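batch job 7 of whatever, protein = NCS2 family permease
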Amino acid sequence: MKQKLLSYFEIDQLGTTVRRELLAGFTTFISMAYILFVNPSVLGAAGMDKGAVFTATALASALGCLLMGILAKYPIATAPALGINAFFAYSVVIGMKIPWQTALAGVFVASLIFILITIFKLREMIIDAIPADLKYAISGGIGLFIAFLGLSNGGLITANKSTLVGLGSLSTATTWLTIFGLVVTAILMVKKVPGAIFIGMVLTTILGLATKLIQLPSALIAPAPSLKPTFGVAIAHVGDINTLQLAVVVLTFLLVTFFDTAGTLVGLANQAGFMKNNKMPRVGKALASDSTAMLAGSILGTSPVGAYVESSAGIAVGGRSGLTAVTTGILFIVGLVFSPLLAVVTDQVTAPALIIVGVLMAQSLRQINWSQLEIAIPSFLILIGMPLTYSISDGIALGFIMYPITMLAAKRGKEVSPIMYGLFFVFVGFMWILNV
């Protein structure tokens, strides 16, 4: 068995060992295990059954990891992306008042398109169409949006009639749970402790249990919750996608997931030293693994699946082969029995995770060319529009509408691709539909 592993995953050629790969897989899992509890919390706000989402999250993550490890042979793990799940719940379902069943169908359609794009190798065309600066702005804007959600859910920011928003009440005991979790997680992150976000959630939960701000769970382990409330719902509601508004939602699912995945894959490949002549070997297989997991996830009942930046934790301890991702996938399956812990993962426990991941996503903003106003203005509108409109899609729309205008004003209209001009009209129509 060991020889087969060594041969298939090219362990010796990559200068690693089976033991190191297993350790790297475990490290990656600990670093991203928080999604098992955060994703049900976020999608639960949209009215979805938290137990079913927990199971769907674990299974979709496991499938993506196994495919990435076995097919693409990369030490890169996958799971429902934090940020786009917030778009799903807060922008589409709550903001646009679209039933979660229809939104899930939108994910299903977007994943089919994603697969077609991969098969016909249209990736370069689409990536080149949208300027890199706007891609960075989208990533950073989503970071600000989910950090805002974390601050709000944790009680650190509340509604204020005079100033729209304001500092939450520090006399509320649960708010101090959020503060404790944020401080502890920040310290662990700065010290580069593997699994810092997960450990921070655990310590916050322990404090909540000790102070009785969180009730003890009825059990530690139990059979995985049923998928019945969400399984197959996406397919059954595909027919509901029959308006321009929903078409734009599908397009947004596709774009955000596609570029987030592409950027993460390239970044992780660079970290691991896989890039050759500025190209990522087997990128088609990596994207096929991602898109297949996204399709399966939509059928199971979760938001889009994508490559996880926390994979860098496993790569940092020496993970270089697909065995790392396979190990992470197996651990996600093992994690299915810990669903009772959902009861202790309150908003105050997940809020610090959302805030810290927001910080990580905002790091992309340094890549934007702020010195050129024709680039800076649409990028800034995307960035600030997402949290202030409480909608990822509205933020993208503001930036994509402004971009051709500022580029034409700067006499750089020829640099704008036909696809971006097309998206200008799509998003103008989108904004008109939403606000008329």
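notes: The mean pLDDT is 87.
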